[in-house]
From TrEMBL:
Name of the protein: Iron complex outermembrane recepter protein
Ranges for domain TonB-dependent receptor-like beta-barrel: 358-826
Annotated TonB-dependent receptor plug domain residues: 118-237
Main location: membrane
Family statement: Belongs to the TonB-dependent receptor family.
Membrane-related topology note: Multi-pass membrane protein
PROSITE patterns: TONB_DEPENDENT_REC_3
Cellular component GO terms, alphabetical: cell outer membrane
Signal peptide span: 1-22
Gene3D superfamilies tied to this protein: Carboxypeptidase-like, regulatory domain, TonB-dependent receptor, beta-barrel domain, TonB-dependent receptor, plug domain
Amino acid sequence: MKFNHFLLGILFMIIGPAVMNAQTIKGVVMDENGQALPYANVVDKVTSAGVTTDGNGNFEIKVKGFPVTLIAKYVGFQNKNIEVTSASEAIVFKLDPSNSLDEVVVTGNRAKTRTVLSSAVPIDKLYAEDLKSSGQVTFDKMLAYKIPSFNSSTQAISDATAHFDPADLRGLGPSRTLVLVNGKRKNQSALVYINDTPGKGEVGTDMKSIPFSAIERVEVLRDGASSQYGSDAIAGVVNIILKKQTNFTEVSLTSGVTSEGDGFNFGADLNSGFKIADKGFVNFNLSYLNQNKTNRAAKPGKDDLFGVAANDPQWGDWLSRNPDLGMTIGQPDSKMGALVVNAEYPLSDNTTLYAFGDVNIRKGTSFALYRAPYWVSDPNNLLHDAGTTYNGFQPTFNTDVFDNLGSIGIKSTVFGFNADFSLTAGSNKVDYTVGNTLNVSLGANSPTEFNVGGYTFSQLVGNADFSRTFDKVTFGFGTELRKEQFEARAGQEESYVGGGAQSFPGLQPANALKKDRNNFGVYTTLDYDVSEAFLIGGSIRYENYSDFGDNVSWKVNSRYKLNNDVAIRASYSTGFRAPALHQIYLSNIQTLVSGGTISNQGTFNNVDPAVIGLGVPQLHAEKSQNISTGITFRSGPNFSASLDFYHIKVKDRVLFSGEVGFDGDDTTTNPVEQVLIANDITSMKFFINAVNTITKGVDVVLNYKNLEIGTGKLGLSLASNIANTKIDGQIATPAILEANGYDIFNRKEQGRILSARPNTKVLLGANYDLKKTTFMFNNTYFGEVTWQHADDISKDQTFAGKVITDLGVAYKFTSTISANVMVNNLFNVYPDKLDPKGDVVTDLGGRFKYAWEVNQFGFSGTTFTAGLNFKF
């Protein structure tokens, strides 16, 4: 007892004076019209201690003494400082809406934060509410409807690709956009997109792995940044900043369905947090999303149904009962659960410990080509009951995805430099199961479900970053150590023996491997504010990879303010992208459509003797040159505009080759076919550095806020991207292949990097705030795309540009309860229908109504979505 009293006495001696001297300040935070801003942050500038306003915008904060400077912060508004000299009267903060060019960004500069206006390179900044207003349910689709140069759309009949949806920036492919979380490198996915979709042959980041409800904002740097961040940043950088709020809990419920009655989805998100000893914080986010499949298969009714005529006497009855040939073509079934945590704790006035991470689990089911009974028989009644009519089967492709990221670090001051030391680990694991199928060669002993193997990609990254501002000069430097590992796991034996499981023969033991590499990088940056108007800067980075060698990239940029409202900017940079471990070591056998039939083809890795025998060199880094120039303009607090031109040259792009095969004549004297015969191969594909591209484009962004219309306020935005990519020079075909007439990258494959994505996209948005109601209107123009035939230009097809209209309304019942309703694709717009032009392979005998190899915005049609949001 005495000991307890002693402890209490010591505790009182420590904190008693502070408690006795603490002063309470009361106040309110509101917008420029006097409307309360609930859950705004009010912070003591010196101690960083802060509170959050209640549902009516009121707050109470304790301070040690006077005078004290308080800062009020609220998303979408400019911060405001007030010096308080006494607690005698309530403090009123009136916050002005922030102009988009006044927004502070941290991406694109490793040392000093700048606003969008003062940045020397173009950066977009989107808050969670901006993303939500798109009406989309996944983060990648939200970005696609908010950033004109960002592309992502649902893929169908594409195995695991259907669960990742390749996303890219400026049409340069998924591999050339670097994704960061809180400024730290996010791991790539384990999947290589080897199906006939945009991004074929590339490796991207799993953009579905972080739920948007955990995101405070996203900063998209539309400029090459390899000299600052390393590999992959040729097209730009997407930096995802996680939420930090702690003083309330937010629960969101959403649900939607298409006008066809399919594609039902339900999502639930919970975001909350708590403070640690009134100094640090922990924010956590739980998310769940269940999304059902859609089906937009065609009903052919043609003479040639890819394997049998429509009037065939043997199959006519089956064809009349199955006008869609049994196909399911659309978005897959999927379920997702995710946990995201973000935390910080100040150890002292200048030292802060931080940590963040996420775990994402997804299970999905997509569909392969329907095995019509005239393609594949089932004599042992494995997939149908004995005595019943055999109707064929559609194999399912089940994907289990486990993605996780964790980072821990400490920010402090070392010899006057701001220092940031961190360790980040991340991995993406994909396991495949093929169901509702069989292995014909096993007869009655065939399973009907197969574990066909899987892949894992993981990385461990250590960073040390330093920066310091000396008057007008900001200097930074740092180092990065990274270890990457790629693993391929074999499937069960029954999945690959004989002809293998229908739709996806399993990975064989010969395909299984575990490979890793190490990377070391150092960089330095320097910004010089010659005057308040004139900024020049640059950076240089050296990288060394254990598997292919080193690289040096650099950048120079400048910005000049003609006045407080107009600035011009320009940059020139070199960049690089290291070939992914997946692209170096991936090998498998896959069932694909080739030559008018279904056949197995092999992907052989870059170190395989057969590939080396064909004269294919070891993969090396892609190199890039990026030139950009632009102008920014604002007029008052409400209008802003930016115009940026860019020219990106990429040398030695890694591509996935076309098929190299032979006709089965073992007496051939063709040296290529002799290599294939010697390695017991009938056909093969491989990865190779073989093409140079030039991409030119322009980005335009216009914003107008707070236009008074009646008793409400209107906000307007117009953003567009116009770009064009062309192949520069000849395809670098190995000599032995070129001499024998092999085209490793035909017109069809070239089309995937030239015209599979819209070269023009325009976003026109309007928000009208009327008291408690907000009306949302978005028009998105997706420009034309072109599918190129492999060798016959007369069979090319261009799909016209389309406008997708979204209309929504949100209503605040109280300061803590709100609801929203959104209609996406209001006018039920679909892409142009496929015209096979006499080539049955183009639409597989009428099975596909819409193109799947080039893609503008998917083909789900109108979707209705409703949501409820609670804060407490």
